[in-house]
Amino acid sequence: MKKKWIAAGAAGIFLLSASAGVYAGNNLQQIKAFLDPSMKFLVNGKPFQPQNDKGAALAPISYNGSTYLPVRAISNALGVSIEYNGATNTVILGEKLAGVPIADSYGNSGSQRTKDPQSTSYNGKDYKDVHFNNLKGARSDGFMLYPKGKYQKLVLQTAAIGEDIEEFFVSDSDSDVRLKSDSIAVADGLKTYEIDISGYESLFVHAKIKDGGSFFVPLTTSYYK
User: Fold this and answer.
1) What burial letters (b/e) apply to 124-162, b meaning 16+ CB within 10 Å?
2) What's the domain of life for this entry (predicted)?
C-alpha cells in the first residue's frame, strides 16, 4: 500500500540520520541549519511526531529550502524496515535482495530443532536444519523468532505430516497480534507464507497438532528479507 507524507511548508524531505549510525568520517561537511519544532506532519491523514530510537521527540531540520528528517523516523512512520551496514556506510530501507535464513534467530526451549538426516528430509529433499515436532498425542507446538526489526518480510515454509494442522498462526510476541492465521493440510505439501514483519522485534510461530501428526519447518529455506 502506498503511503503519503503531508508536511506543511516543507520544500522537500531528505533522509539523513545520525540515529541510524551514519558517520562518514572525513566526508562530513559542516553546514549551518535550523531546527523547526513548529512544523507538523500527517501520515495517512493522522498526526505524526518524529522520534529518535529512545522515544524522544525530534524537530525537523531546515536547510537551504529543504526539510530534513532522521531516516529512522521515516522508517517507523511508513512501516519500512531499516538497517545500517557500517562496512559499506550504507542505509538499507525495505526488503533486502538476498534472503537471510531464520536459523540464527530461532529460539525454542524444547528439543524440536534437529539436524538428524532421518528427520530433516521432506519429499526427498534434505533441509539440513529443521523444526520438527513428531511427538505423540494431540498437542500445541511453537517457537520464537527474533528478527529484531531488521527485516521487511518473513518467508516461512511449513508442512503438515500425517494429519492436517487446523490451527496455525504467526504473531507479534509483544502485542499478541496475529500477523498470519491459517490451516495446513497434508495435501498442501511444503506451504510457503510471506508475512509483513516490518518493525517487529520478536515473533511467535504456533501450530496445534493432532495425534499422529507432525509439524515440519525448514530453517534453511525459511528466511527474512
Assistant:
1) eeebebbbbbeeeeeeebbbebbbebbbbbbbbbbbbbe
2) Bacteria
| Domain boundaries of the chain, sorted by first residue | 5-93, 100-224
**How many Cβ atoms from other residues are within 10 Å of residue 53's Cβ?**
12
The strand pair at 130-133 and 113-114 is best described as: antiparallel
> Tens digits of per-residue pLDDT, 22-60?
444 567 888 888 888 888 888 888 888 888 778 888 888
pTM: 0.61
Q: In 3D, which of 215, 168, 163, 214 has the Cα closest to residue 193?
A: 168
Q: Are strands 214-218 and 153-161 parallel, antiparallel or unpaired?
A: antiparallel
Distances (CA, A) of 223 to 64, 153, 189, 200, 209: 43, 8, 18, 15, 23
Gap between the Cα atoms of 181 and 110, Å rounded: 23
CA distance 10 to 69: 11
> Per CATH, which fold does 100-224 belong to?
Jelly Rolls (2.60.120)
Residues in the chain: 225
